[in-house]
Fold each of these.
Amino acid sequence: MAATARTLNRTPSKKRPKWLSLFWLRFRRNRVGVAALSFIFVEAAIAIFAPWVAPFDPYRGDFTATWQTPNALHWLGTDDLGRDVLSRLIYGARVSISVGVLSQLAIAVVGLPLGALAGLRGGWLDYALMRVIDVLSSLPSLLFYILLMVALGAGFGNLIIAMAATGWIGMARLVRGQVLSLKETDYVRASRAMGGGARHIILTHLLRNALTPIIVSLALGIPGAMFAEAGLSFLGLGIPSPQASWGQMIGMYQAYIRTAWHLTVFPSTVLAVTMLAWFLLGDAIRDALETSTPSYSD
Amino acid sequence: MKNIARYILSRVAGLLGVLLVVSLITFALMHAVPGGPFDARALERQQMIPENIKRQLNVKYGLDKPVWRQYLLFLRNAVRLDFGHSLAFPSRTVMQIFKEQWPYSVQLGLLTLLFSTIVGIGLGIASAVRPNSWVDHAGTGVSIFCLVMPSFVFAILLQFVLSVQLGLLPTGGWDGPRHWIMPVLANSLAPVLVLQRYMRSSMRDAMRAGYVRTARAKGLSRRRIMFVHVFKNALTPVLTVGGPLAAGLVTGSFFVESIFRIPGIGFYFVSAIGQRDYPMIMATTVVWTAVISAAYLVTDLLYALADPRVTLSGEK
């Protein structure tokens, strides 16, 4: 009995976040995940220090050096205005990574509270929210992005807004489902029976247990957002022209594939490899967090 | 039978409601955009349209009326499948564009469906029958590739290797089988992924079922078990993704059609966006949503037919 009392008295703040070190232990063993994480670290570092790493100004054209194929000075060649392709790729990494990460933050900020509220409160609020979600998810998602971007206009901020406006649906649904099923678990009932308040239950029981699927969804959402950014920029609705983005470079120069292949092939390759790395990282995170569900490559 | 009729009726009513809301959202979004269609065209041609001509154009296309009346007009005409003249291609009505261009998208979609069904279902079966073999690993590799490779990136790389470097295939157009290969390959990424993953997991579920163990105990040959007991039962869940997938394919692709210059609906939609072609954008959104929602309905009905355990109910 004394032992039980001691366990109960231990405050949660004194406990080290054990799951984090456990997560890291498990993650470290996954070679593919570590490789993907290292690649992303290097790429992120290049993106952050772009002004120092990029050999040329990505925005300044040089009319004496247009349409150059890869050479010693311009490693990946130059475009129609004589801008250095490598430098534009490096600055494009900034767009790609920040769109991926920021859009997931925005989705979490909007979708998490809405889903939790619907799951906790139930009633008409839940009903109304679910009907809104029903209608919005009947629009084909790519079409929805396109309509939003046409209405908002191309630009970085609007891209994040459009992604939050479409992405919150999945997040709200996920959180609501988690809350609904966790609410009925024995430990939540026990906690309530022992006098646990709403705040206590939400923070220590619901949030902590719903965290794993939320993190996994956000981690795998990053490559999805990068994909959407590239697609919209490809259509001319994402990042507007003087700024560089991989998808936009592919879209702008795809007509010149015969005469200037380097303008589209390099951004395409970088985009594909980056998407692969983020996806493998997300998969490894899921493997390290979840013990029961089989991994993708199972 | 009466139940089924009531079920279908309630679903169709729901579909009409969804279409109404979707058209309202699209309409609101289109009109939230600063600048009308004539500004966009003027900008493109770098010319100014005099104010009084612009006013006359607006009167001609009914853009001078209050927004709510424009929406009601749109609804009244849309019921009769009349979406008006396209603003970007003024010589044709939206319905004409649909009639003339959609067949290209349907053809691309059906070819893609055929190809990805063979590859996806085949890979899925092979991976399920021999788990952890080289086929299974190859299947996983293919599905990861399909997942991370955006279709337009794959299209560009295909163009680069097969057309520019090797000179085997034409870079674009839609004149014959030689033109079909690359668009179909690029368009197949998502469907192959979905079909392969679903087929594999559904086969493995079926292989674990009690009736398979019974069949094995009876001494049936492995081949017979796989075909009669496993494959037939595993196919039903795949149907549920197959329907919406097919609908998504026949509505066309923005990326593949514009890269390979296929004159389908996706290609026209992309140019409609840039030119603020309201009628075209509205029509495409509504028609696509209708096609995809209808595909869900048909899939649910087929599913109930194929699996006697599933019952349709109006209330859910």
Amino acid sequence: MLSLNWNLLFTIINLIVLYLLMKKFLIGPVTGIMEKRKALIEDGLANADKANKDAQKMKQQYEDSLQNARQESERIMTTAKAEAKNEYNRIVEEAGEKAGKLLSGAQATIEAERAQTVKELQTEIAGLAMTAAKKIVNESGNDAVYDLFLSDVNAGDSTKSNGLEGDGSEDSDHR
Amino acid sequence: MEELNCETVFKIPLFGGIGVSESTVVTWIIIAALTILSIIFVRNLKVENPGKIQLALESLFGWLQDFFDGIMGENGRRYVPYMITVILYIAVANLIGLLGFKPPTKDMNVTAGLAIMSIVLVEFAAIRARGTKGWLKKFMEPMAVVLPINILELFTRPLSLCMRLFGNVLGSFVIMELIKMLVPLLVPIPFNCYFDIFDGLIQAYVFVFLTALYVGEAVE
């Protein structure tokens, strides 16, 4: 029991054999499978991380493009508004001009017509007056009319000679 | 007293007969049993959807690896398989008394062999980690005066390992035999639980714990 003998050596050999057997049949496979699982999990985590990052990137891109589109639409809207306003202004101005032109044209026409009418009327009135005068002359006899006419002329002459005292001689020379 | 003796089972007819003792034969049985069980348990390991046996095995291994990693650190990782082997062997050897065998650890040849292997491993690890020069220099640290003590430690460490295991197992074995002689019925059960199971596992734990501690110190 307390003596050391060959069995010490046997024990050491046994231990080494047991170590090799355990390493081959127990520790190796179990550690291997645990390592494999660890690698698998790490792989999965890395993959998930990558996918997450990709999704984030895609979201960023999407947001960027959305932002761009919004800006673009805003820009288009502003341009369209400005153009529409310009067009509106132009049309209104044109319409105003046209209306003004039409108005002035109409006024000129009206003026011309009025003048025409006045002239016609004057002619008519003169005609009427002549007729009236003829009628009067015929009725009251020529002598009286001549007298009247002459008296009228004289009166007018005297006033005229009064007004043109300075060059009366010249006048007579001309005549 | 015949229970205390380690009987010689047979003799190898060499050098005038080498006696192969009971402890060696039981160790062979243990080796065979452990190998066969390993093959059975490891047969269908799966990376995904592990079975209950695999889960138990893996959690046991995870615990053992964490335990030894914590003691020996990064540099001692290569010695973990040996530690696992030794703790398995000592645990089974201490518990095999339950099956009616004589525990091999009751034979001092076995514990001495284990202790010699431990100290060889410790010194090997030290040489590997520091080189021969560094290993020799370590004997004079922290100062030259402690040189004899450090050299003495080369022998006291395995001796204490060997004797602790041997004494504990032998002591519990003797007490169990005495109790069995006095009251053969029922009474031995709680004592059996304590001396064979609890003490056996504690001694296995202590042995590998100390060995790992020495290795960790050597490779540090």
Amino acid sequence: MMLRLDKRDFKKFLEDLMEEFDLYAPASLVEGVSVFKKIDNPEEVNLTPTLTQKPAKETFFPQSEPMFNYKTEGHKSQMKSLDEIKRERILLGARPCDIEAISIIEKVFLSEPYTDVYFLEKRKKTTLIGLGCNQPLSTCFCTSAGGGPFLRMGSDIFLIDLGGAYSVELLTEKGRLFGKNRFLKEALPEDKRQIKELEKRAFEKIGVSIPVDGIEKRLDLMTESSFWDRVHEKCVGCRICTYLCPTCHCFDIVDEGDHARGQRVRNWDSCLSSLYSLETSGHNPRPTTRERVRQRLMHKFNYFPKIFNRVACVGCGRCIQYCPVHFDIRQAIIWTSSKRPSELKT
Amino acid sequence: MKNPYLPIPMVVKKAYVETTDQMLRTLELVFLNKTDEEAFQYLPGQFCELSVLGKGEAPFGIASSPTEKSSLKFTINKAGVVTTALHHLEEGDEVGLRGPLGNHYPIDLFEGKNVLIIGGGFAFTTLRSLVVYLSHPENRSKVKEITIIYGARMPGLLLYKEELAQWEKRDDLNLVVTVDWGDKDWKGKVGLVPNVLEEIAPSSKDTYAVICGPPIMIKFTFPKLMALKFPNERIYTSLERRMKCGIGKCGRCNIGHLYVCKDGPVFSYAQLEKLPKDY
Amino acid sequence: MDERLKKIQEKIREKSKELLSKKRVDLIIGFSNWTLPLRTTPVFIRTPEGTESLIWNSFCENNLATYIHKFNRFRVGIVVKGCDARSLTALSLEKRFNPDGIFLIGVPCQRMVDRRKVARAVKGEIIRVEERGEELLVEGEEFKTVLEKRDFLYPSCQVCIHRTPSQAHFLADDPVEEFPLVETHPEVDVFEKKPPEERWRYFESETSRCIRCYACRQVCPMCYCTECFVECLRPKWIEGGLNPQDLQFYHIVRAYHQTGRCSGCGACERACPMDIPLTYLTQKLNQDVKELFGFEVGLDSKTPPPLSTYEVEDKGDFIK
């Protein structure tokens, strides 16, 4: 079902949503830095930046999340897993790449035989409202990674910025529940054409130039390639690319507190950290950035597809934008299909 | 829905130091709740995450065998924060447990075959489980010969000494215990595991080899097994990796597309051969 | 392209080519253009022909000294600005590498342009940029504008005095004049004028954005501890989550560990994906060290940093 929301009604529309739901949406922290956060005031919502710094995965997989509280008295310990979510949630304004990434992380967290209850609880109680990308960035390559700037898949509701209004598509049963909202009006006849136009422009801008197709097979033959001797050189081992990646999902589990009282917490972790795989004995199976960068790229483009039949990259380009030494994952992908290792530079 | 991250409560029934260096301590744990006990079904080679609240969790191979109903046994090498805390537990203390996790030794494949078990140092824990399991009256007839080569640096560092003495006496187990350096009371073999293997040269015909030990031992033992013509498909090992969740979610312990916690810890060499060499 | 920068670039290439041809070094660490405008990338060149990709412009913002830890077993030629060279001097005092194995290709620095500030000055994504003397020509799909470089320099570069890497084995241009554009680091200036509570509020609010990616630590040549205090488990100093106290603790200790060691290159701040100002802390400490001890980082290769040494005659006054 296709509707339309006048931008003048947007704030009031959000207020309506917030009556019933916890709303998560992009908000600026300072000029030029935005993240998905729980919205207290509709004024905070800022849908202008094409990409937030931190991706929407945080809404389901927070950077730091308590798993359970514990208390010990004498010999006896009590552990209390955190309460279920009382209020349904809405994630609004996530771009198609971020939404697709949620379904990628979901494959891991919900795969049998163990279900990650923390992820599941948030996932099943959240309605996803996606937002089309009218202005993709030069670093976007979603179209090469199996997605697209207007990919509706995964969204319950999909918004497209038409200038003075948003086009509102109710795509799933969950989404259609919002059809009765007083601010949603019937779509205008010309909306469809305008959307087509916007889609065409965005697609043309991004193009499909990054050879992600077939990369799993190419990398099968490259596990010990000299490629890895060069590709990692500039990596300084920070965690930006993994923390800002919408599909990276590794975590650490630690106890905060003492024996008597505290909580077990999971924190994001990164395969690029030297400590990530360091064993207590001092042995580190991935001792240098060579092995760590290989792990990052192989996991995304070879190991993950082997298990889940899809690359763990949605082409959002955050890792390119924010890498302090300007590592460009697109070039690494391109290189896997080139025949001239000497020209390697990433 | 069951929360796979929530430990179940266990109680320390018995705790004792195994080795003269005091670094290896065995904990015998019993279930606090009957329902947990009934739900806990395992096979040799599987592991558990043990938690000490406030310190964290770490993975340990189960050293007891499912044929021993009284308790679960873990032998813990004191190395880091969690293992040190586990060394300080006393009888009656509570400890958290998640498991059983991971796969097990391919016991089905062993049926009607010989089994060669090679262990070194404190990695002998899950091999003990395997020996106890296979030599149990219910299972002994399922496999043919069982040969065990177990080595430690010094006699005082051998695990499960009383049991070794009992196994020694059994005529349905060929046990060879060796140490790198003997002492005045040591009457057994002196020599490194790979050399002892070469010396006793067990036939690879109809035989599965299971090998667990420090990386250096594995490195030198493997060629000896090759020389004895063990095919990669019939050599199994149990890998250790830094782990957190133990259920294939947190990343970290993968080797290639396989996760040591979920797809392992037991792998055949035929499997490992195909993976990148970061282990 | 700017004439002076072009000349420097030629010199860098020439020298690198010579060093590699004569096998004086195993590799050259320098800068190269890459996929985004307003950016460059570190490159590791091993062949004389490869030196053609070396470049020089006002976006060579990385401190390449940080790679010395990774390549300290090789003979390396490194392209350095004044600040980068001072980091290396400080590192040589800490015996982090063999000074004989390193060749510094020094560039008297024109001060680096703050790419984020430029990006904020225009509406839309920048797709092309060109340097013309004191100006930047910035283009997007729907705009084309000229900016004064001077208005878009990194804070650490505005305050920089020792822009000529006088320690270098080779200088790609004549030394530049030793003067800061502004006397005090602009953020230190603002910060110092605030009353203490407000200072704290500012610090608190800025560090609250930290995502613990440790990019500030990883890009810093002076942060090379095998085990950083944030990751030390015995004892555990700090939790791994986003608790405000932990974030503050991390940033305070990180800054303090730099006292008398920080060359003021600003790499930490540039690396931060969350735009957290970081150099006002280290610059303030540098200022204090200069006032209290008359010491500036990396000016000579003999004087150890004041906080890393002591003499029996030291008076304790400064501690009071």
